[in-house]
Specification:
Distance between the termini: 64 Å
Number of strands: 8
Structural class: alpha+beta
CATH class of the largest domain: Alpha Beta
Largest sheet: 5 strands, mixed
Order of helices and strands: HHHHHHHHEHHEEHEHEEHHHEHEHH
Strand content: 5-15%
Radius of gyration: 25 Å
Strand order of the largest sheet: 1-2-3-4-5
Helix content: 40-55%
Number of domains: 3
Number of helices: 18
Shape: globular
CATH architecture of the largest domain: 3-Layer(aba) Sandwich
C-alpha cells in the first residue's frame, strides 16, 4: 500500500510507462477514492480540475505554430497542449479490470459536487467526452430481460425503474413473464451486470390510453402473435454517472427493428408517456386553479405543442426526447395515470408518441432544424381549442 499523498500517485500514474506499475498505481488510486469522504472527494476533483488543466499560453503557442506550418509534428504538439492531462489520467485509471463502473460512479459524485462548484464543470466535460467514446452504440449490447433472467439483473430492474415504480417481485413478474410483455436493456461489456438503460414494452390490440390498463393485475393476456401495437410504457436510465450520454434513441430504434422481425403483425409503435412538466407549467402560467377534467386534454395538447424553453425547444423533457428521436405527438389522454406522482406531475394526463417508421427521419430533421413539433390532426385541434377557450389570453 502506497501511503504517499494521492496527488503524487496521480502524477506517477500519468508519467508512468510500465504497464504493470501503471495498473498497480491505478488500482491504488481507485481504492483510495472508494473510501474518501465528501470533503476528500472534493479535494481530489479540485486537484484534477485546477492542477491538471490545460495551459492556455501553450495552447495558443502551439496553435500559432500549426497555423504557420501545418505539419504533423506541429499538429501533434497542439493536440497534446489542448488536451488536459486529467483526460489521460482517467484513461489510465480505466486500464484496471472493472474500473469502468468505478469511473461511472466517480462521475456521479462529480456531477453532484459540480452543482455547487462551477470550477469542476470543465472536468465533467472531460469525463463526458471520454464516456461518449467508451459508451458509443458500437460497444453496446442489446439484451432481452424476462422472468428467466438472472436474479441480480431483475433486482436492478426493480431498483432502476424510474417511471412506474415496481412494488414487489409479483409486480415485476406481471411485467416480465406474460407472453404479451417484453423488456430490453443495453449493456456494456465492461459493466456486464449493470444495465445502462432499459425499456418495458406491452404488446396490445390498439393504442392504450391509461397506464392502469397496461399494468392491471389479473388482466387478460394477449397472444403476442395477435398484437398489432407495441407500447413503450417505461424507459429508465440506470446510471446517474452517464447523464448526458444518450442511449434512448438507439435503444428504441433497435427494439423496433427486433420486434418487427419477430412479430410481423406489429404495425404501430407508440409510447405511453408521462407529461412531467404540465402541472409546473400551469402553475407558472397562473392557470392551475382553472384546470378541470373538461379542459385538461386541450391544455395538455397546447402545452406539448407550444410551451417552449428560452432556446425554442419544447419545455417538456420527455417531449424533447421523443420528438428529437423523430416521433410525433399522437394522442393525449386524461385519467391515464391515477398514481400520486401522475396527479402531481400532470393531473393524471399522459401522451402517446408515435414512431412512424416512414416519417421518423423527416420528423427528426424538422425538430433538429427548428424544433418543429410533429403532431396528429387530433392533437393540433385540441391545442387550437385551448387557445380559443383562453379568453384572458393567458396562454
Amino acid at each position: 500500500w502506497d501511503s504517499r499523498p494521492i496527488e503524487q500517485l496521480i502524477a506517477d500514474l500519468i508519467g508512468n510507462r510500465g504497464e504493470i506499475r501503471g495498473m498497480t498505481l491505478a488500482r491504488q488510486i481507485l481504492d483510495r477514492y472508494a473510501v474518501m469522504d465528501d470533503a476528500e472527494k472534493l479535494g481530489f476533483f479540485t486537484h484534477l480540475a485546477v492542477d491538471l488543466d490545460i495551459d492556455p499560453a501553450q495552447v495558443r503557442a502551439t496553435l500559432e505554430m500549426y497555423e504557420a506550418t501545418p505539419s504533423k509534428a506541429n499538429y501533434r504538439a497542439y493536440m497534446e497542449a489542448a488536451e488536459p492531462r486529467r483526460q489521460e489520467f482517467v484513461r489510465r485509471l480505466n486500464q484496471v479490470p472493472s474500473a469502468t463502473g468505478s469511473l461511472v460512479a466517480m462521475r456521479r459524485d462529480l456531477l453532484g459536487m459540480a452543482r455547487a462548484n462551477p470550477s469542476l464543470e470543465a472536468l465533467d466535460l472531460d469525463f463526458r467526452h471520454l464516456f461518449s467514446s467508451w459508451f458509443n452504440r458500437g460497444f453496446l449490447v442489446l439484451m432481452p430481460i424476462n422472468w428467466e433472467s438472472p436474479a441480480h439483473i431483475l433486482e436492478k430492474i426493480i431498483q432502476y425503474e424510474a417511471v412506474h415504480a415496481i412494488d414487489s417481485w409479483s409486480d415485476l413478474r406481471r411485467r416480465m413473464q406474460p407472453t404479451d410483455r417484453r423488456c430490453f436493456a443495453f449493456f456494456h461489456p465492461a459493466m456486464p451486470d449493470e444495465p445502462l438503460i432499459f425499456v418495458e414494452v406491452a404488446l396490445t390490440k390498439g393504442v392504450p390510453g391509461s397506464i392502469q390498463k397496461v399494468l392491471a393485475d389479473g388482466r387478460d393476456v394477449l397472444d403476442a402473435d395477435k398484437a398489432d401495437t407495441a407500447v413503450f410504457y417505461s424507459i429508465s436510465n440506470c446510471q446517474a454517472g452517464l447523464a448526458g450520454i444518450s442511449f434512448g434513441n438507439s435503444l428504441i430504434k433497435q427494439v423496433v427493428d427486433d420486434l418487427s422481425r419477430q412479430l410481423p403483425g406489429l404495425k404501430t409503435f407508440v409510447t405511453l408517456s408521462p407529461i412531467p412538466g404540465l402541472a409546473a407549467w400551469a402553475k407558472d402560467m397562473g392557470i392551475e386553479e382553472t384546470v378541470t377534467p373538461d379542459n385538461l386534454q386541450s391544455l395538455a395538447a397546447h402545452y406539448l405543442l407550444n410551451a417552449k424553453r428560452d432556446d425554442g425547444a419544447p419545455r417538456d423533457p420527455v417531449a424533447r426526447f421523443h420528438l428529437g428521436n423523430g416521433a410525433m405527438v399522437h394522442a393525449v389522454h386524461v385519467k391515464a395515470d391515477t398514481s400520486e406522482s401522475g396527479q402531481v406531475q400532470s393531473y393524471g394526463a399522459m401522451v402517446n408518441y408515435l414512431y412512424d417508421l416512414s416519417a421518423n427521419a423527416q420528423n427528426h430533421e424538422g425538430f433538429a432544424d427548428s424544433f418543429a413539433v410533429a403532431a396528429s390532426t387530433d392533437v393540433k385541434a385540441l391545442a387550437r381549442a385551448a387557445k380559443k377557450n383562453d379568453t384572458k389570453g393567458t396562454i
